[in-house]
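Researcher: Please predict.
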Amino acid sequence: MKICLISNLYPPNVLGGAEVSVKKVSEELVKKGHEVIVITTPFSENDVEIINGVKIYQVKPLNLYEIYHHPNQSMLLKPLWHIIDLWNPYDERIIENILKTENPDVVHIHNFKGLSLSSFAPAKSLKIPLVFTTHDYSLVCMRANLLNSSGEICKNPSALCKIYNQIQKHLAKNKVDLLISPSQFVINKLKSNGLFKDVKSKKIPLGIELKDNEKFEKDYSQTNILYVGNLGEHKGVHILLKAFRKIENRNIRLDIVGKGLCSEKLKSMSENDNRIKFHDFLEGKELIKMYQQANLTVVPSIWYDNSPMVIYESFSCRTPVIGSKIGGIPELIEDGFNGYLFEAGNVNELQKLLENLIDSPETLKKLEQGTYESVQRYTMDKHIKQLEREYQKLAK
């Protein structure tokens, strides 16, 4: 088959897990014998590149700035950027021309912000089946995370947000043939907000490469706790830091891997605690080594997190996960089997969980076996086979 994936970002431009997943899936589809093209925003000076067999078109949208630079823009520019990004005819025309040239059997859109909702239109007008994987809540929230300006779950959107979201719903209507998400929670949340009610939906968990199920020997002489991800308010790293700093045990360590807007604030919270170490963004073997050395990974999100790749990656290294009981996280973590869940934002509950596990290497070993069994459900091979089945149904 000839498959076109559309993603607002593609490595080396990375702001989250979605673009990393798109790259891995694209390259795996090529290995399976498919012809794959990707449409994304620029990451190099070339308009078209072929990387690991994937043909990549880099489209530079006409807007105030590119999506990769969005997190660092002023609050004055962001609203105007969003308005322009609602429907960008320039993007639509370029994407349509690419699809006419390539004539794929199916188009699969991932994160679209920065390429605008107009990226949905060309496939429909050219009668090409369109799949949409939702990784967040961009279609029902300008912030994409359903949090208000105070960093709390938004239960009463402003009038401006309601208008913006209604426009988005109208523009997305009747464009998608199949809705996919790694978590059922996100699918249900979109449908409860009036989106894709009559569209077939499918939960397809993310895929992880197991590296031949290599066995790692864990060390329990010191308990190593790990956080991997964005250092934004919504990820709840401040909750983890508060819980960790309340623990008096000196034979523990917390490694924080990632970057984000709250980086300096979080570092200041950790001052004078030499048990805490911050690392920048890591990937590949360096990141895998962090998971292997960890006894626990913590995912302390305070937003309706979708299906964090961090959990899959941690399980693949036999490292149990403590995660917030919110969004799609409980669909991956089973209490007492491969980790534990705690109430999102509850510092005391997280502290107690950490203390109990720090004092119980035997429990950690039991959880490690659970992670090994869990990750067998989420292999990259299973993920690709599910996608292929859905593509083939649509392309008939």
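Model: The chain has a mean pLDDT of 94.
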